[in-house]
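Appendix B, record 7
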Amino acid sequence: MEAVFRFLLNWSEIWALLIPLAFSLFKKKQPAYLKPVRIYIWLALLFGIIADLIWRYKVKWGFQEGDFLWSNNFIYNTHSIIRLLLFSWFFILLHQRFMHRVKRILPIAFLIFVIINFTFYEKFFDVIFSSRLLATEAALLLFYCLQYYIFLMLEDRTTRLTHQPGFWVVTGLTIYMAVNFFIFLFYSYLTSLNEPFAISIWDIHNIAYIILCLFLARAFYKSYD
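Structure tokens (predicted):
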């Protein structure tokens, strides 16, 4: 049983995405703001497959330390950038008037930060996990989620929030980013200090990722209503 649990956690970045992917394929006409989420699921699945294959088989394939595919961290860097851009697009498509201009500016500011960071401070293809990048992404997405809930409190609504697909996307994203913010922030330090502990704490990330995927699946399910 423990081996099965370990297998599910280790490969959660692949199989968990199949749940919302299945729900997203059942209905062709869905709210426009779910389009970035659908694109994210497909790209995240691709990133997850590549990252896990590199992690699992780098020794079997004969990769040596320093080779291009010795580390899969550049996949996580790419995943982080794409996730921020796609979910920023999702929040913009919600057409909430609250802080609308700020929501449009943040992706541009993030890309400027990425260029500066990987030009002067870090190497994009480095073996070191970019805590700076992922923690910044998490902070920005948490800001997006917070402004979403503030808008809901300020607006008089006649429909139940749980009937809105966007609510489930934002809630799942909030849980995932809130749980992982400090993991992302200190992961590079933990890896250098105690690598076995850093590897084990990634289980928390994987559990949170499964929760995110379940909430995304719920969002697509509610789009059937």
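Remarks on this record: Helices lie at 2-10, 12-24, 35-57, 73-93, 100-121, 131-154, 165-193, 195-222. The chain is about 75% helix and 0% strand.
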